[in-house]
Write a structure and sequence with these properties.
The protein is an alpha+beta fold and about 130 residues long. It has a domain of about 90 residues: GIY-YIG endonuclease. The protein contains 3 helices and 4 strands. A 4-stranded antiparallel sheet has the order 1-4-2-3. The N and C termini lie far apart (about 30 Å). The relative contact order is 0.26.
Length: about 130
């Protein structure tokens, strides 16, 4: 039997609405799951939900406060142009694992904004898409 050297990823339950992802600028910040602590990913995609480009990854509690703060940052909102739509998803993660998950997401998704992430060792997780 051949064993993979890659560890089994921590499974995260990424939040979606019905048939698609949440719009970053329109997601209701009072939703219960946004009141939890965890990690989040902000990205931009075209109208066909293709050509995704990760804008930012982060962690915090409550996630709603992080999303609210980023809505006021031009470095994030400027990516929603020419028919491209900003999206967001998040997942609940234990406080002692958030830094490691954030580090893995930043290394893997290569966000175009932000340059400071946790120094914790990366923890392999499933990606949102």
């Amino acid at each position: 039997m051949v064993r993979s050297s890659r560890p089994t990823p921590l499974y995260l339950s990424w939040k979606k609405r019905g048939g698609g992802w949440y719009k970053f600028l329109k997601v209701r910040l009072s939703m219960g799951s946004l009141g939890k602590g965890g990690v989040y990913v902000i990205w931009v995609e075209d109208a066909a939900s293709a050509n995704k480009k990760t804008v930012y990854v982060g962690q915090g509690k409550p996630i709603a406060d992080c999303v609210k703060r980023h809505r006021g940052e031009e470095t994030i909102t400027r990516h929603q142009t020419d028919g491209r739509v900003l999206r967001v998803t998040w997942a609940k993660v234990a406080k002692n694992q958030r830094g490691s998950v954030e580090h893995y997401l930043a290394d893997t998704l290569k966000p175009v904004e932000g340059d400071r992430w946790s120094d914790d060792d990366p923890l392999h997780v499933n990606l949102p898409w």
